[in-house]
Automatic annotation (TrEMBL):
The active site is at H54 (proton donor), H138 (proton acceptor). It comes from the Bacteria. This is RNA 2',3'-cyclic phosphodiesterase. Belongs to the 2H phosphoesterase superfamily. ThpR family. Gene3D superfamilies: Cyclic phosphodiesterase. It catalyses: a 3'-end 2',3'-cyclophospho-ribonucleotide-RNA + H2O = a 3'-end 2'-phospho-ribonucleotide-RNA + H(+). Residues 23-95 form the Phosphoesterase HXTX domain. Its EC number is 3.1.4.58. Hydrolyzes RNA 2',3'-cyclic phosphodiester to an RNA 2'-phosphomonoester. It is an enzyme of class 3 (hydrolase).
């Protein structure tokens, strides 16, 4: 014990800000980035960097680095069949000035995968930060659209077919230029 009789402060364990996501293949990323750049030129706002385009399945936030191996083992235990996504619609959320791409009709396997993942994570003692909200599958394309220019009518997009065969665990590190993402582990979709 220190001479003043006070206990030494406990060092906080190192943490990682993490989430699980579907990560689109390069061809889909390129097409979505084109849509984002076009929308930014029309609406203003900030287009999502191509290397950051993803569909979040579960956001955990800060997790002790010592628990990352358990987190990866837990995700590896999730069983879900591969599925096809048709990215065919744009949406706008006025509460956060965000333009997103998504499916007009998501296949049942997508919310099923998110639910199975969240269930396994909870059983292993992990807290999913967004578990209390309904799952809203989307790929963020444009942020910070000026309030004076909210889109009234969104243009149609050519449907993009995406074969989803796996999901990833991603570490997010915040920086002045925005979040930097690093894929920590990949998990195949296996029925």
């Amino acid at each position: 014990m220190p001479p003043d009789g006070l206990a030494a402060p406990q060092a906080r364990p190192a943490t990682a800000r993490v989430f699980f996501a579907l990560w689109p293949p390069a061809a889909i990323v390129e097409q979505l980035a084109d849509i984002a750049r076009s929308a930014a030129s029309q609406l203003g706002g900030k287009a999502t960097r191509p290397e950051s385009i993803h569909l979040t399945l579960a956001f955990l936030g800060e997790v002790a680095e010592s628990r990352l191996p358990l987190l990866a083992r837990t995700a590896a235990s999730v069983r879900a069949a591969p599925f096809e996504l048709q990215i065919d619609t744009l949406g706008y959320w006025s509460h956060n000035h965000l333009l997103w791409a998504g499916c007009s009709a998501a296949p049942s396997e997508l919310p099923g995968l998110a639910a199975a993942l969240q269930q396994q994570l909870a059983a292993a003692g992990f807290v999913v930060a967004d578990a209390g909200r309904p799952f809203a599958p989307h790929l963020s394309l444009l942020r910070k659209i000026p309030v004076a220019h909210p889109p009234k009518i969104l243009p149609p997009i050519v449907p993009l077919a995406w074969s989803c065969t796996g999901f990833v665990l991603v570490r997010s590190q915040l920086s002045a230029s925005g979040p930097e993402y690093k894929i920590l582990a990949e998990f195949p979709l296996v029925p």
